[in-house]
Amino acid sequence: MYRSHTCGELNLSHNNTTVTLAGWVQKSRDKGFMIWVDLRDRYGITQLIFDESRTDKAVFELAKTLGREFVIQVKGTVIERESKNPNMATGDIEILVSELTVLNQAMLPPFTIEDETDGGEDIRMKYRYLDIRRNPVKNSLLFRHKVTQEVRNYLSDKGFCEVETPYLIKSTPEGARDFVVPSRMNPGQFYALPQSPQTFKQLLMVGGMDKYFQIVKCFRDEDLRADRQPEFTQIDCEMAFVEQEDIIDMFEGLTRHLLKEVKGIEVDKFPRMTYEHAMKTYGNDKPDIRFGMEFGELNAVAQHKDFGVFNAAELVVGIAVPGGAAYTRKEIDAFIDWVKRPQVGASGMVYCKYEADGSLKSSVDKFYDQDDLKKWAEITGAKPGDIIFVLSGPANKTRAQLSALRMEVATRLGLRKPDEFAPLWVVDFPLLEWDEESGRFHAMHHPFTSPKPEDIHLIGTEPGKIRANAYDMVLNGNEIGGGSIRIHDKDLQARMFELLGFSKEEAENQFGFLMNAFQFGAPPHGGLAFGLDRLVAILGGQETIRDFIAFPKNNSGRDVMIDAPSAIDNKQLDELFIKLNLNS
Amino acid sequence: MYRSHTCGELNLSHNNTTVTLAGWVQKSRDKGFMIWVDLRDRYGITQLIFDESRTDKAVFELAKTLGREFVIQVKGTVIERESKNPNMATGDIEILVSELTVLNQAMLPPFTIEDETDGGEDIRMKYRYLDIRRNPVKNSLLFRHKVTQEVRNYLSDKGFCEVETPYLIKSTPEGARDFVVPSRMNPGQFYALPQSPQTFKQLLMVGGMDKYFQIVKCFRDEDLRADRQPEFTQIDCEMAFVEQEDIIDMFEGLTRHLLKEVKGIEVDKFPRMTYEHAMKTYGNDKPDIRFGMEFGELNAVAQHKDFGVFNAAELVVGIAVPGGAAYTRKEIDAFIDWVKRPQVGASGMVYCKYEADGSLKSSVDKFYDQDDLKKWAEITGAKPGDIIFVLSGPANKTRAQLSALRMEVATRLGLRKPDEFAPLWVVDFPLLEWDEESGRFHAMHHPFTSPKPEDIHLIGTEPGKIRANAYDMVLNGNEIGGGSIRIHDKDLQARMFELLGFSKEEAENQFGFLMNAFQFGAPPHGGLAFGLDRLVAILGGQETIRDFIAFPKNNSGRDVMIDAPSAIDNKQLDELFIKLNLNS
């Protein structure tokens, strides 16, 4: 072993003992007669001291040559520091070095290995192994490990069995694009990488495994938004002989356990909200409820006056921004510009200040008197000192726009506190959503989600109104988990595929194995999947998932460190019975 | 919840309580006035009773319709059984059913859902979800879960951090064939699925993670032998600032822990054996040491007589088979035929019975007298009552043949006891092995394995004699884990690639990122990987890994249940910039 202790554990109780440490040179201060070196490993930093008067000359000379990030091994004596550093675990001691070995030299790193580095995103990704040496990334990876250990132990204690499902499966055109893998042994055929183990976990329920989970990589070949990865990790769960309430109980328990174990936070029973309520109140099916600013619908009080814009709108809806009466005209204009950005897409914004003296002052005073505006304040819950922001237009779009504004305002007001956690369940999702582009219904969750029994009669008449036995767990404005009670009846599943526009042949060809399985005694079952990358990032109080993934890919799906993907040679292509077709 | 209890937990302490159970009908016996049903779930079997005189008529009639594998829910009262079954956890009670709900009907399964099924391998794979209902498969999956939980908890307690490495990486022509994944966003380029996370775990060491592990899927597109899978699972581990001894200590500790926790077996410190000794003594680098039959080399005593076959052989080597003197001529001939099979490839076999009376009788008595044969007995350790089997020919081939024979004999003699565990370390592997076909050296483990420092001087002169800092953990004749201390010096790594026939450009193109990383302060490091599928199967006392994999593939790499791989449509191919090339 290259060390007797780590760089994070020595203190005064080790005083005068001889120790061996190994690690990286964090920094070195050479005062001529005395050299101090901060030696770093995963566990901490320990100060080394080389003293011209006490250290062997050869060792002292060698110490002068040490550069940042050199890998060294030292033997020495633990001594009490003259000037202690109470902010460091090892701050009471230092090591008077007697032996020094350079295990490996290091070139100057392309960015500083500090909590606040001077390296940009691109260079840090290219040298990710150096980035991982930095505390923020290293600690994120350690935190992720702690979370997954807690999840595994909690679920195992509850009787869940982790089962590995295959990675080389079958491609299905439904949903997002698959990554595919040509088969050498089956010419012209391809495996697909799983977008989720959905059908396999259902088959495990048919197989009587009763309680399944898996922490598993999933793959989606989609155009990548800023914070998406082509490969991502799910905590995938399924239970048999359960109803929605059982699933909610179980995974609320898990989440509460996590919050307690990894954050030290106790939370109450999670509130529940229907999809409809969430959309009307927050314009969003994953509302951040750490703060208020609930939507107030103003149609009844703002329409039928002389303001044509509102009169023509399907929905007039506003939020009260706390303290917003103090905004300057310039600040308000900035918000108006913000909602007009293409990413938000509003055509304009009306506002109304509720002054501290109780008077109301709006941008549409021409059309509304104080009594009218008072009603706006009542409905949006504005108090003196607030400002009301009002958007109008087609209902769905306007809600989405106001939701974006609400989040932006909250961020600027510091209401989205990373150390506050407000989980909730959103329930009663629609089973289907209409897709304008393809002119047909899509499954809102996936084709295996069961309709609520009381809504099944709507299948033939108003399928868009069928609610699903589906539920999402939402945390701080993020969907961190989602699931449903599944269909376990072959005929209902066939009906569902029909509703989604599958021909009998397509359904049979793609999901015949599942429908067949349902004929051999499928139990009622349901489950849920958490997005682990996101969950860990939120628990870690971060907005971005990248620091919680050891080797992430960039927005073009490239690993810039190893330079993948890359060309392969013709022999490989031939063996796989494919060739390039770059002009397609 | 569909149940108040599982089918495995009720006993006399629940007498007279009302319970609700749900599960599958294992079997049903209809005696006219009385119907017994065995209800099964993952946890056990509970006997239900429907009694014409005590059960509601409608319920009784419905019970008559129940077929095998129907999914039902029942409510009833726990009562004491008249004829108890001491072999069942629930054997003291039965449930007098008052309510019965059929949750799902079932077609007759294509094979019996019993411990000993009438279904062959193919049909069981096609309906794997039914196969999983059988105890042998279900228990194997639960056992696998238990093993992985133990591994994770043990390593976490020791300070290891599980880090997920990417699945979409870069193809490297070295070693086995990669599965590749065409990239839609990077036309003409391909990802590869990892054969192991080798380079990533080394980069994590460069990144200071210090102790890494991962239970991770790996992929090899090789022609599948009987018990190989294209996707398999590794327990992958790496440590920094360690020497071989530290790795051996740590993972011997893990394995000892597993044997104790999952098998209740305490084992001593594992013996160690050099590769050279293993090859000479067992003809094999993964010897099964649950039994003896060590090789005795007979050249000195069997050559230079008049037996031309032996005289012409590079090696004459034998084993003493305990009790073998009792073999009939027919039995011996069967062994001779066995070694002559093409899979073994011997041209013949000489034998020598060591009779109980102390006399020796060989198939080559013409050339050897009693004194000669006595020496054979001494060298092979034969005792009166044994038989000596002797093979001869080129050394390596002959050893491999005798090793195969030794294992076959041991199997027939029942010496390979599934409940006996004899782990050992094989150490001091050669760094390189000569490949006749390509006329160059290959890395015996992989190109990142470090040579023993004392052998480095042989690089320029006799590279074939360099020993590696490599070690395998062997259990009952299987390599269950293997690893090495890695090269952490850029120049030595470059030298190694050169030795393996890489041009500078190839080395740079494929592994430049790793050699670059070594320039920024790589610590000494090493690790090991266990084959989880095999490890679990051996711990479970089984020869085959399939029952320990939920959804295995067949020998053509097909998943016959979901029918994968399969054709994909032209639109998908176009998007990926490839086309089929079936005439390649």
From TrEMBL, chains A, B:
Keywords (A to Z) from UniProt: Aminoacyl-tRNA synthetase, ATP-binding, Cytoplasm, Ligase, Nucleotide-binding, Protein biosynthesis
Uppermost EC category: ligase
Signal peptide: none
Reactions catalysed according to its record: tRNA(Asp) + L-aspartate + ATP = L-aspartyl-tRNA(Asp) + AMP + diphosphate
Chain spans, region Aspartate: 198-201
Pfam family name, one: tRNA_anti-codon
Subcellular location: Cytoplasm
Entry superkingdom: Bacteria
GO annotation, biological process: aspartyl-tRNA aminoacylation
Molecular function as annotated in GO: aspartate-tRNA ligase activity; ATP binding; nucleic acid binding
PROSITE patterns cross-referenced by the UniProt entry: AA_TRNA_LIGASE_II (PS50862)
InterPro entries assigned to the protein according to its UniProt record, in alphabetical order: Aa-tRNA-synt_II, aa-tRNA-synth_II, aa-tRNA-synth_II/BPL/LPL, Asp-tRNA-ligase_1, Asp-tRNA-ligase_1_N, Asp/Asn-tRNA-synth_IIb, AspRS_core, GAD-like_sf
Residues annotated as binding ATP: R220, D221, E222, Q229, E479, G531, L532, D533, R534
Subunit organization: Homodimer.
Physiological role: Catalyzes the attachment of L-aspartate to tRNA(Asp) in a two-step reaction: L-aspartate is first activated by ATP to form Asp-AMP and then transferred to the acceptor end of tRNA(Asp).
UniProt record similarity statement: Belongs to the class-II aminoacyl-tRNA synthetase family. Type 1 subfamily.
Protein name, per record: Aspartate--tRNA ligase
Lineage: Bacteria, Pseudomonadati, Bacteroidota, Flavobacteriia, Flavobacteriales
